[in-house]
Amino acid sequence: MGKALRTSWQERLADSKDLPKVVEINDRMSQRWGTGTCVIPAPKEVDELMRKVPRGKVTTINDIRAALARRHGATIGCPITTGIFAGVAAKAAEEAKSEGKKDLTPYWRTLKSGGELNPKYPGGAEAQAARLKDEGHAIELGRDKRPKRVKDFRKSLIKL
Question: In the chain, at which end, N or C, are there fewer CB atoms within 10 A of the end residue's CB?
Fold first, then answer.
């Protein structure tokens, strides 16, 4: 029997999994996120917002969550799935690049809260820092002398 083929990152990005959907924030979730509703976005929606960030600008996962919440009339955007799908978009972009495709999601322009770099992106924080430096951003180092965040990132934020 042959091995099952692995689902590509681009296929994972395209699979909506019956999303988006807006759910009521339950008791367990409310301790962390308050009350109201939470939108669980489709992977493509996260990718679409990440693609809107032009060269020299940045956004944060929290800004993407807020844009998704507005779009769907929800109180919040799900922090877990939004973060996961940003990672899927990043890996799908690198996969597409390795196939010679040119229209890539500029995932390196999406930061964590506080302007922090995302060590889970392809190549880690170092690769993200290098791409952001190429676009004119200054990078602050952490105590360990490794790239940590974009300096003065708020000056470069785009409104989604």
Answer: N
DSSP string over 61-89:
HHHHHHHHHHHHT-SEE-HHHHHHHHHHH
Instruction: Tell me the average pLDDT across 75-96.
Output: 97
Is residue 149's pLDDT more than 70?
yes
As to burial, measured by CB atoms within 10 angstroms (0-12 exposed, 13-18 middle, 19+ buried), residue 57 is middle
pLDDT(4) > 70: no
Identify any residues that bridge with 21 across adjacent strands, giving them in sequence order.
40
Task: Please return the burial class of 77, using the count of CB atoms within 10 Å of its CB with bins 0-12, 13-18 and 19+.
Answer: buried
Q: Are 77 and 86 in contact (CB under 8 A)?
A: no
Enter the pTM of the model.
0.92
Can you tell me whether residue 141 is helix, strand or coil? strand
- Report, in angstroms and rounded to the nearest whole number, the Rg of the chain calculated over CA atoms: 17
DSSP structural state of residue 111: E
CA distance 11 to 91: 11
